[in-house]
Amino acid sequence: DAKTTQPDSMESTEGETVHLPCSHATISGNEYIYWYRQVPLQGPEYVTHGLQQNTTNSMAFLAIASDRKSSTLILPHVSLRDAAVYHCILRVAGYQNFYFGKGTSLTVIP
Amino acid sequence: NAGVIQTPRHKVTGKGQEATLWCEPISGHSAVFWYRQTIVQGLEFLTYFRNQAPIDDSGMPKERFSAQMPNQSHSTLKIQSTQPQDSAVYLCASSPGLGGAEQFFGPGTRLTVL
Hints:
The complex is a heterodimer.
Chain A: E1 9-13, E2 18-23, E3 31-38, E4 45-50, E5 55-56, E6 61-64, E7 70-75, E8 84-92, E9 104-109
Parallel strand pairs in A: 1-9
Antiparallel strand pairs in A: 2-7, 3-4, 3-8, 5-6, 6-7, 8-9
Chain B: E1 5-7, E2 10-13, E3 19-24, E4 31-38, E5 42-50, E6 53-56, E7 65-71, E8 74-79, E9 88-95, E10 104-105, E11 109-113
Parallel strand pairs in B: 2-11
Antiparallel strand pairs in B: 1-3, 3-8, 4-5, 4-9, 5-6, 7-8, 9-10, 9-11
């Protein structure tokens, strides 16, 4: 069962920085926060994940609240290629399977 | 690295027929997962294997659905007596199998049951 809450949709303009919020008020201490994104006709693509500390990679910056009850995926300078459904998922350490929610559909306007 | 390969990409069956979907995981990955995606339900976990052994099939419908992994290079999802409600995109993913490892998804097989 999905334990995260995300807005159904968000819109941004090319070149802007986008903040995608995710609420996980009942997160457990051993649950990691994962972000995946999916474009039509393709499978989900890994974006990033974290446990407690903020993380960054070439795709995005993940900001995790100090109480871990929420997180924000930050996409700098979005392009049209970043338009996708972004899924915020919790997964217990050592477990393998993911439980996806509906995610946030990000529209990027030229 | 070709990524996860799924065949066929599209399959159309008549109601009551059998459908077999194939997945070739990334070489060296020990965990294979099956998911089903529909507009209404979103992306649902079905089952997964680790080192070819079934680990968790809690998402699999109890009737008509079965999954196997006869060797480390492929897995199959079989649906017997297909029904229109089985129409969905079936996604396969693989991972190195380490705890917390990310999953790499294939492009999916779109199954349409008429």
